[in-house]
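Let us practice reading a record.
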Amino acid sequence: MEGDTFQQWKNQCLNKCDFSKKGSVDEDISHIVSFINSHDRYFTTSSCSGRIILLDGVSDCPDVQKQNCSWLFVTHQKCQREDVVTGLEKSVGDATFKFEPFVLHIQCKQLEDAQLLHTVAINSGLRNSGITVGKKGKVIMAVRSTHCLEVPLSHRGNVLITDQYLDFLVGVANQKMEENLKRIKRFYECLQGALQPQEQRCSLKEEADKKPVYRRRRKRTQDDSVTDCCQSVKEHTENSEEEIDCDLLFLS
């Protein structure tokens, strides 16, 4: 019965319309979303590959909510200074320049499934990840990072910063976007290692053990990073009865 309920939730979620502003999954994480949704114990409920945005909020309003803001500029790639300047010229309130990193919400069939993904996320550098359990038994794993950026640029339509400082902010945001893409790549590599069949993991480990030691020490490759993640997943599985260090919230 539990499996039937989970499958119903999955079918409903994946068949509903995408009400996001973009209306589709971001290109840089579409392969991750497809990979997760192909597994019978998981499905994604929301996602964002990371973005740089310029919001115009209502002046002197203590509640900075998205519904009270207008989007002056948004990109899921690196940004150009000219794009930010053009958006800033349209500001009539309090403009805020933000970088928001990769985020992914995954509904899991059981708590141990969520704990496995939590281990993957933490080992990928996404250390703000956590798990929530709803009153209806829904287990949600949130994959989140911590390298955000939020800076006010104007007040009541008046720009508060210099051109030099704007150049600096754009550079910082672009650096964060580069790091964001690296973490997405590492998360996908670790995710593949964790969710592939156990016999394939054993086969990969046997192949790795046959490699000459001097070759593995000479250069650390992407395969080595995946091996590290797989080892952590293995340790997680062997110690599944131990307390998992994660943000586990039980919602009433």
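A brief commentary: Residues 54 and 195 are 37 Å apart (CA to CA).
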